[in-house]
Amino acid sequence: MSQERRFADPAAVRALATRIARLAEGVSRRLTIMEVCGTHTHAVAAAGLRRLLPPNVRLIAGPGCPVCVTPVGYVDRAEALARRDDVIVTTFGDLVRVPSSHGSLERCRAEGGNVHVVYSPRDALAVAREHPDRTVVFLGVGFETTTPTVAAALAEAEECGIANFQVLAGHKTMPPPMRALALDPAVRVDGFLLPGHVSVIVGSDAFEFVASELGRAAVVVGFAPTDVLRGVEAIVRQVLEGRAAIENLYTRAVTPEGNRGARALVERHFTPADAVWRGLGPIPGSGLALRDDLAHRDAGRLAVEVGAPVEPPGCRCGDVLRGVIDPPECQLFGRACTPASAVGACMVSSEGSCAAWYRHEGRA
User: Fold this and answer.
1) Which of 5, 58, 148, 175 has its CA 20 to 30 A from that of 361?
2) What's the domain range around 21?
3) Residue 165's domain is classified under what CATH number?
C-alpha cells in the first residue's frame, strides 16, 4: 500500500466530508458516482469513505478489477492450454484462483497442469528461455497500465529470437465499458472517478467523451482519501452547476496526453478488438488483440477443446461489477463466498470489490 493511501490527515478528511455534505444539500435527488479502479476500490473501503458521505451521494465500484472482468471462457482456455504436454502457462498469481467452468488454474496445477506463477512478463520470457522445447504462454490480463509491459516482452522476444514465447491476449481498455455503463439505465451513473493508474498511460484527454458525448462529470484523482473526496466534491459541484467536464486533480502523475512512449509501444503490438466482460457482456472495441504480423505469438491460435463457459451458481459478481448491487446484496457474500473460499472473481482478486468490502466494510 502506498504512503499516500496509508496516511491521511483526519482533519482534512472531515473538512472535505463536511463540504460535500453542504454541497449535497442543494441536490434534489440521489447522485451516483462510480469509481472504475481496483486501487480506488480498496482505498475507499479502507478509509471508510462511503460512511462519510451524505445519504444522497452514493459512491459505487465499477469494473476496475482486471481479473474480475476476465470472462470464464478465458480461464477455461488457459486451463486447456496448461493441460497440453507441450505448453507451460505463466500468469500473475491473482488469476490462479479465479473460478473456471469446472475448477481453476490452481486446481489444474494440482492435477498436473503446467502453470507457473510469475511476477512480470519478463519472468515468463525467462521461463521460455529455460524450456526451449515447450511453448510458454503468458496470460495477458490487465488494463492499459499493464499492457505496455506485455508489449515490451513481445518486443524482446522478437529481438532475441525467443520463438517459443506466446501471449493469450485478454487485455481490456477502460473507455468503452464506461460508455456502456453511462448508458445503462439500471445503474444511472451521474459521474466517474477516473482510474488514476490508467490515466497515467492514456492521459486525461482519453476520457473527454464522458463529458462531451455522455454529459457526465468525470474527475481524475489519486489514491489518498483526500484525493478521492476532492473528486467527489468536484463531481457534486459540477452537477449543481449543471455542467459536465473532465477535471484532472492528479496532475502530479497525469497529463492530458499520457505516456506517449507506452501508448506507441502498445500500438506497435496490439490492435483494438471486441471483448467479453464479466457482467457487461460483449463490448465492441474494448479489448486488444495481437497484430496480424505477430500471429506467431498468439496463443489463442493453439488448438485446444473448450466447452461453453459456466458461471459459478449463485454468484452475482457481474452485478457488482456493473454497480447494480453492493457486495453484501449477493446471497453468497460472507457465507459461502469468503477470501479463504471464494466463489466469485470479485472475492478472489486483491482488487475485487467483494474482497475490499469483506475486509473493510462488514461481512454481511
Assistant:
1) 175
2) 3-64+175-248
3) 3.40.50.11740
How far apart are the C-alpha atoms of 213 and 358, rounded to whole Å? 36
Whether 139 and 287 map to the same domain: the answer is yes
Q: Quote the CA–CA distance of 199 and 220 in Å, as a whole number.
A: 7
- Report the DSSP pairing between strands 115-117 and 217-220: unpaired
Q: Identify the DSSP state of 78.
A: H
Domain check: are 124 and 202 in the same one?
no
| Contacts of 54 by beta carbon, 8 Å cutoff, 6+ apart | 20, 21, 24, 25
Q: How far apart are CA 318 and CA 281, in angstroms?
A: 9
220 pLDDT band, cuts 50/70/90, is very high
pLDDT tens profile 117-136: 999 999 999 999 999 999 99
How much is the average pLDDT of 261-267? 98
Beta bridge partners of 40: none
d(CA 178, CA 198) in angstroms, rounded, equals 13
Neighbour count for residue 253 (Cβ, 10 Å): 13
pLDDT in tens, 87-101: 999 999 999 999 999
Global model pTM greater than 0.85: yes
Q: Is there a single domain that holds both residue 59 and residue 73?
A: no
User: Tell me, what's the pLDDT at 5?
Assistant: 45
Residue 209 and residue 349 in one domain: no
Of 154, 104, 147, nearest to 312 by C-alpha is 104
CATH number, domain at 10?
Answer: 3.40.50.11750
All cell numbers assigned to 300: 489463442
Cα 249 off chain centre by: 21
Round to whole Å and give the CA distance between 222 and 47: 14
Entry field: residues in the chain: 364
Q: What is the DSSP string of 4-38?
A: HHH---HHHHHHHHHHHHHHHTT-SS-EEEEE--H
Nearest by Cα to 245 from 187, 200, 194, 294: 194
